[in-house]
Amino acid sequence: MATEDKNRATAAAILPLVGGAANVSSIAHCMTRLRLGLHDRSLVDDEALKAIPAVLGVVEDETYQIVLGPGTVARVTPEFERLVEEERAAAPVVHTSEELAAQGAAIRARQKARNATPFKLFLRRIANIFVPLIPALIGCGIIAGLNGLLVNLEWLPAVTPALAAMASGFMALIAVFVGFNTAKEFGGTPILGGAVAAIIVFPGVARVDAFGQQLSPGQGGVLGALGAAVLAVYVEKWCRRWVPEALDVLVTPTLTVLVSGLVTIFGLMYVAGEVSSAIGTFADWLLSNGGAGAGFVLGGFFLPLVMLGLHQALIPIHTTLIEQQGYTVLLPILAMAGAGQVGAAVAVYFRLPRNESIRRTVRSALPAGLLGVGEPLIYGVSLPLGRPFITACVGGAFGGGFVGLFNQLGDTVGSTAIGPSGWALFPLLDGNHGLGSTIAVYAGGLVAGYVAGFVATYFFGFSQDLLTEFDVSQEPAPSKIAAGGPADPAGTGPGSPAKEPAGV
């Protein structure tokens, strides 16, 4: 009960600071953030929101995003939704048509101005398909790791088969969930997308010959499911246009499953299977031959990819690798970007001994950063300062190079799920040389990222002008820090509401 009260108190503290229920147009959440659609952005009190203990930071994108961290956001969001409903029921708000038209025009203009390129919109859709699956991937991945440990230790032999079933059940049917979410995202009937995708994992496809070879259940995996569901959406929409209303309930679902199902069996499963195999082969080749160099590049460029929203393109690749190999070898390397960020933040702390405002931000955001929640450090510390963001990338590169080197030497490090990073990734680690070796390599990569990020930032992260501006002996005035300072008229300084690219 105390936890429920705490979550409700957090929601109650947030609501008036975003303009109340009347200002909220939509509510959603992802792994770490409460995402709000707002009618009027000017009604939000950013500084007061950041002062709430549970709030790790705020980010403005197409939606206004309040960073609460994993776990917390899933508990606070339902309480926030209930409070909004209660406030609206108690005091319904009546808008004039002119007000609604003006608000709608402003919202559309803001959305159009920010990251509305076709490629980024496509990546956002891909993320919307796979992000809802992450909690199940994490839960099943941890159970799989626990089961592997018990099997290796020969403990609880009567229990391990049950754990194996729990860990594997979701992955065996993940294509169905991908198909369901894909149809929902592309404007079709979700259950029809799931029905077509289910063909891919149905054992009976083993009796089908396509392209001169027998199909195997699961061939094509999530990529095949995604393609099958998109095709089903287009077939369904065509049927809705041409099939008479009196026959729609019978003809449309039948033709949707029949046409897209045949194309899936006699085309998509084979093609998607070849693509999936190529992805796995390329990832293995890259780390076996590129080693430290490949890890250095991947770890160093991941933070900029996140900033551009391009990291979402990796989600299907991670999922495909987990399907094929039981883990993704890319995630532990990419997670080193967070280690570089932590090292850079610690260096900032020591380089600005008289700026208590930034040092306080570092202290409050470091625990989240160590657990893989990097937004508070990125948007509150390194990115507004400029150079420390680059040196954080250097730290990530060295950490990635460390893990990549061991991959080249034959000690593979992978993650059984996507989502967490930092210390939170330890329970999800898996590899080919035992859990102890895998943990040691990953921990060594984190240390390399911490140290490299610290050293690069401490010695190369600050110009003399930057030190003069930010290493102040008194508490910085809001006009200097919260608004970005005189050299930062756009208002992107530490403590200001950062502008996050689409898809982060």
From TrEMBL:
GO terms for biological process: phosphoenolpyruvate-dependent sugar phosphotransferase system. The chain crosses the membrane at residues 129-150, 162-180, 187-206, 247-272, 292-315, 327-350, 439-460. It is a multi-pass membrane protein. Residues 124-476 form the PTS EIIC type-1 domain. Residues 477-504 are annotated as: Disordered. The active site is at C30 (phosphocysteine intermediate). Residues 482-498 have a biased composition (Low complexity). PROSITE patterns: PTS_EIIB_TYPE_1, PTS_EIIB_TYPE_1_CYS, PTS_EIIC_TYPE_1. GO terms for molecular function: kinase activity; protein-N(PI)-phosphohistidine-sugar phosphotransferase activity; protein-phosphocysteine-N-acetylmuramate phosphotransferase system transporter activity. Keywords: Cell membrane, Kinase, Membrane, Phosphotransferase system, Sugar transport, Transferase, Transmembrane, Transmembrane helix, Transport. Residues 8-90 form the PTS EIIB type-1 domain. It is found in: Cell membrane. Pfam families: PTS_EIIB, PTS_EIIC. Its main location: membrane. One of its GO terms (cellular component) is plasma membrane. InterPro entries: Glu_permease_IIB, PTrfase_EIIB_Cys, PTS_EIIC, PTS_EIIC_1, PTS_IIB_1, PTS_Sugar-Specific_Components. PANTHER family: PHOSPHOTRANSFERASE SYSTEM TRANSPORT PROTEIN, PTS SYSTEM N-ACETYLMURAMIC ACID-SPECIFIC EIIBC COMPONENT. This is PTS system sucrose-specific IIC component. It comes from Streptomyces fulvorobeus. The gene is ybbF.
